Amino acid sequence: MEQSTTIFGIRAIIEAIESGSSINKVYLQKGLRGDLYFQLEKLIKKNKLSTSVVPNEKLDRLSKHNNHQGAVAKISPVEFYDLETLVEKTIESEVTPLFLLLDQLSDVRNFGAIIRTAECTGVNGIIIQKSGSAPVNAETIKTSAGAAFKVPICKVDHIKDAIFQLKASGIKLVAATEKTDDSIYDVNMNQPIAIVMGSEHKGVSNSVLKMVDYKAKLPLLGEIESLNVSVACGAFLYETVRQRMS
User: Fold this and answer.
1) Domain total for the chain?
2) CB under 8 Å to 82, separation ≥6 — which residues?
3) Which of 13, 29, 127, 198 is the right S-S partner for 204, CB 3.0 to 4.6 Å?
4) What is the 3-state secondary structure (H, E, C) of 8-74?
5) Sorted alphabetically, which PANTHER family does this protein's record hold (predicted)?
6) pLDDT digits (tens, 9 = 90+) for 140-157
């Protein structure tokens, strides 16, 4: 699967971007020059694609020693959804909306585990940011047990834009954070909800916390100060299921 989602060569990557392919990341050799490269660079900036400057040896490995011309890209094996369209369809379906916003989550295994739990709990869509988020790659799909093909995933330029859009549609934002005295068990999850989970190391960013409707935490009865983000996400989702089934 990983091989089928790798393309190499500047022109091939340009064509993939222009055709609307979902690019996870572009790897570039330091010091590239030329008209074709500048065309690629312009497209990367326009589409806000994640990039990394790497040694030629890494490009050789990624391209399996084919002629990469100093550029290799990873294409997502799943198609991404438009957030506005997905929210509209969810509301029209007359189910109580349940979305997940992942604020800079970067570990692919955590991402995959979250997607799997999301599928099991009826999440209508997962929203990630184009840059800085874990990619949807072969490892993500494997960890999700294939759920990445079943749960709609939306990529947005900025998480804040998604929050504004969700709020405009009457969906309340619930952030999972230790920076509160409120318990998840005291929040009404039986309403249109989007749960916000933060990064593995920093949690939900302060700028996002200022925008949410509710902040909630899980009780921690041991000595360790926090849960793994995928485990915490599962607890939030199943509390939502419990309330909605009551």
Assistant:
1) 2
2) 154
3) 198
4) ECHHHHHHHHHCCCCEEEEEEECCCCCHHHHHHHHHHHHCCCCEEEECHHHHHHHCCCCCCCCEEEE
5) 23S RRNA (GUANOSINE-2'-O-)-METHYLTRANSFERASE RLMB (PTHR46429)
6) 888 998 899 899 999 998
